[in-house]
Specification:
The complex is a heterodimer of chains A (about 80) and B (about 180).
Chain A (H helix, E strand, L loop, with lengths): L2 H12 L3 H12 L23 H18 L8
Chain B lengths: L2 H24 L2 H17 L1 H5 L3 H16 L2 H18 L9 H18 L2 H11 L5 H8 L3 H28 L1
Helix pairs in contact in B: 1-2, 1-4, 1-7, 2-4, 5-6, 6-9, 7-9, 8-9
Chain lengths: ~80, ~180
């Protein structure tokens, strides 16, 4: 018996049998596909909760105006 | 894309080579089967990524994942257990003279034990060449080493197995 024959016999003893390979295939394809975490997001991001940005613009402008007015020196009566 | 058809194509093309690779890494048939399933489950989950690659890069992707899987700590424990089991088998006393089928089974065991004792790189290379039926060039591409290195490892591995078989044959020739 040649070395190649011995190695071929060993290879046959460790090779995955076709029936086992077929069963493995069926188990895998029945597994639901999980979307990987780095996959692109298909839906647009949800709107941020809270007040509309225009409210904050008006509020900030009014607040700044009140601060400036409150620090203006009081005009004394002549 | 027909996912199942595409996966079936990849599975048919790489299954034997991947299982041979894991057989070489683990020296344990069941661990090799478990790892093969783990790997192809990842291929199934990432099929869109793998299917878009050229054939040579598909093989590279698959064997990169295979390498990562086989260095997993839990799997490493299984590897040690499998190797120790194989070595324990090799340390048994020489068997009594037996019939041809028993001798053939013994020779397979001697080859298996000799392969289990090989350095890992030689074991993986020999397993991919024999059980995986890959050429030196294909093994080189999968492992990312020169083809000359693959041929050298194969030569050393075959020499070690041949020496183990010679030691097995000697006692019977003396009788």
């Amino acid at each position: 018996m040649s070395l190649d024959d011995d190695l071929a016999a060993w290879a046959a003893s460790v090779r995955l049998p076709d029936a086992e390979a077929a069963a493995m295939f069926e188990r895998i394809v029945r597994t639901p596909v999980v979307t990987p975490p780095d996959a692109p997001v298909s839906s647009p991001p949800a709107a941020a909760a809270g007040l509309d940005p225009s409210w904050w613009r008006h509020f900030s402008a009014g607040f700044a105006a009140r601060m400036v007015a409150s620090n203006r020196p009081v005009r004394r009566a002549a | 894309m027909d996912r199942e058809a595409e996966f079936r194509r990849l599975y048919a093309a790489h299954r034997v080579a991947v299982h041979a690779y894991f057989t070489g890494r683990t020296a344990d048939r069941q661990s090799a089967a478990d790892l093969t399933q783990d790997l192809f489950l990842r291929v199934w989950q990432r099929l869109e990524t793998v299917a878009d690659l050229p054939a040579d890069r598909q093989r590279a992707w698959i064997f990169t994942v295979a390498r990562n899987l086989s260095v997993d700590a839990h799997r490493h424990q299984l590897t040690q257990a499998g190797t120790e089991q194989a070595l324990a088998l090799a340390r048994r006393d020489p068997p009594e003279p037996a019939s041809a089928p028993v001798i053939a089974a013994e020779r397979v065991a001697v080859v298996g034990a000799a392969i289990a004792r090989l350095p890992e790189q030689q074991r993986v290379t020999l397993a991919m060449a024999t059980a995986g039926q890959l050429t030196s060039a294909e093994i080189a591409a999968a492992l990312g080493v020169p083809a000359g290195t693959v041929r050298y490892r194969l030569s050393l591995a075959r020499r070690a197995v041949a020496a183990a078989l010679d030691r097995y044959d000697e006692p019977r020739e003396d009788q």
